[in-house]
Amino acid sequence: MERKRQVGLVGLAVMGQNLVLNMERNGFSVAVYNRTSSRTEEFIHRRAKGKAIEAAYSPEEFVELLERPRRVIIMVKAGPAVDQVLDQLVPLLEPGDVVVDGGNSFFRDTECRARELEEKGLRFLGTGISGGEEGALRGPSIMPGGSREAYELMEPIFKAIAARAKDGAPCVTYIGPGGAGHYVKMVHNGIEYGDMQLIAEAYDLLRRALGMEAEELHEVFSEWNRGELSSFLMEITADIFLRKDEETGRPLVDLILDKAGQKGTGKWTSQNAFDLGVPTPTINAAVEARILSAYKEERVRASKVLRGPALRYRGDRDDLIRAVRQALYARKVCAYVQGMALLRAA
Questions:
Q1: Which member of 54, 185, 267, 332 is catalytic?
Q2: β-pair type (71-74, 141-146)
Q3: Which of the following is catalytic: 54, 192, 267, 332?
Q4: N or C: which end of the chain has fewer CB within 10 A?
Q5: Tens-digit pLDDT profile for residues 285-294
Q6: What b/e readout covers 172-195, taking b as 16+ CB neighbours within 10 angstroms?
Q7: Is 185 tagged catalytic?
Q8: Residue 192 is among the residues annotated as catalytic for this protein
Q9: How far apart are alpha carbons 292 and 287 in whole angstroms?
């Protein structure tokens, strides 16, 4: 009899693909399914070629490939797409099977799904996964919440694929019942919104007040990343200054449109903070800055009416760089404190 796969994953966008490769590299056999079969074909014949990864081309075939109790991870866009996958899979699953939503779902949606699946005898985990595409491949931070029994069944996989702290401990723990995992991921993302906005403002001060070019900015941010500001976001900020546009040879950062989108987690953090009466001004300002950035045409027209003051700094260059570094550190602490206060209140 053919051996069943230990875990299955639905949704083969880059995050899903990288998680599959991470699990397989750590000794787990994986079944995969994607609504678009062409993406499955491409993945199986390229990145997954020669690995313990088996493709299914229907929900029925996918479920049949899995050992019992089945462990299924869903990696699709938050919202209706998650419900569509659940509508396909749930009738095929059996009591005791585990379903993991690894996307950025709203925590209240996760609580509703958990109740509905538990009524059917299924075990559900709403699981925040942090680290982006590279983290999914090399080791993400994982925030599971929901059924305790489901976590125990997923724990060996989560601990194997997670990032490691400096002491070697895996960056995963059971957060709590219901939507707790997705709630923590929401607040994590809200803090990150604040962090990214602060980094952008530090860049803006140095770029416009001192006229620093991309290579100089790379040197400054690289130095900052070796001290108390050390973080993944600082590291990739420093690196991006060295990226060049292939057509013009100019620094890519000078050509990127100053217009940002958002997936909702930062906005949800602010909304929930208002509901609980917790002040999160740094996070709120970051959300507002993203919304404001979308008004590009209006901002261009306004800039022709009101140009604003000259931003050239006339004082000591090193003093300003040092002051921006200190201000960035202080405000990053504030963003973390606000997020932790919200978690405590919740």
A1: 185
A2: unpaired
A3: 192
A4: N
A5: 999 999 999 9
A6: bbbbeebbbbbbbbbbbbbbbbbb
A7: yes
A8: yes
A9: 9
